[in-house]
Design brief:
The chain has helices at 14-19, 35-47, 65-71, 74-77, 86-95, 159-178; strands at residues 23-30, 50-56, 80-83, 98-103, 110-111, 122-127, 144-147. By secondary structure, it is an alpha/beta fold. It has a single domain, classed as SPOUT methyltransferase, trefoil knot domain (Alpha/beta knot). It has a seven-stranded parallel beta sheet, sandwiched between helices. Helix 2 runs parallel beside helix 3 (65-71) and helix 2 (35-47) packs parallel to helix 6. The longest helix is centred in the last third of the chain and has 20 residues, at 159-178.
Length: 180
């Protein structure tokens, strides 16, 4: 066995990526403090061909040295928007037909392993601040909350890891439904 060389991976160009179909999934970063986590979110959004990344509140925006360090170019391929007020953004997305879920430990949350993607859904996922989580002001506006089941001593995952886990599962389900 050998590792593949970069040129063997058959990666698409940024221009081709912009034109290809995207998973009907967007990420909303709500007051994320670490620009490194923001960069990781962009990289994940690129890896799974998501529609958009929204940056809200104090969340850093490109170009930012730490975002660029972890995104390694994904800020150029993934469409993104800065929205200063998450409540206004969520209201707008919901009027456009998006179902909005907080990724949060909350009353009545759905365990990720129980969440069922529907082919007709456009889904927006809110990932919150590393300490405070999703803003209290937006929680009453969401359609639900999704929670990553955990069995260890800690109560949360790093946001970059959490984004990877949740997005992977939702895109996996969506792609599986597309093949039926």
């Amino acid at each position: 066995m050998r590792k593949l060389k970069l040129e063997e991976l058959g990666r698409t160009s940024v221009a081709a990526f912009k034109q290809q179909p995207k998973a009907p999934l967007v990420i909303i970063l709500d007051n994320v403090r670490s620009a490194l986590n923001v960069g990781s979110a962009f990289r994940t959004a690129d890896a799974f061909a998501l529609e958009h990344v929204y940056l809200c509140g104090i969340t850093a925006q490109p170009p930012h040295r730490e975002i660029l360090k972890t995104a390694i170019g994904a800020t150029e391929s993934v469409d993104w928007t800065y929205a200063p007020d998450i409540v206004t953004l969520v209201d707008t997305l919901r009027t456009q037909g998006w179902r909005v879920f907080a990724v949060e430990q909350a009353e009545g949350s759905i365990s990720l392993d129980q969440y069922q993607v529907r082919t007709t859904d456009k889904t927006a996922l809110i990932f919150g601040n590393e300490v405070e989580g999703v803003s209290d002001a937006v929680m009453p506006l969401v359609d639900g909350a999704v929670e990553v089941p955990q069995w260890g001593t800690k109560h949360s995952l790093n946001i970059a890891v959490c984004i990877g886990v949740v997005v992977w599962e939702m895109v996996r389900q969506w792609r599986s439904l597309q093949q039926k």
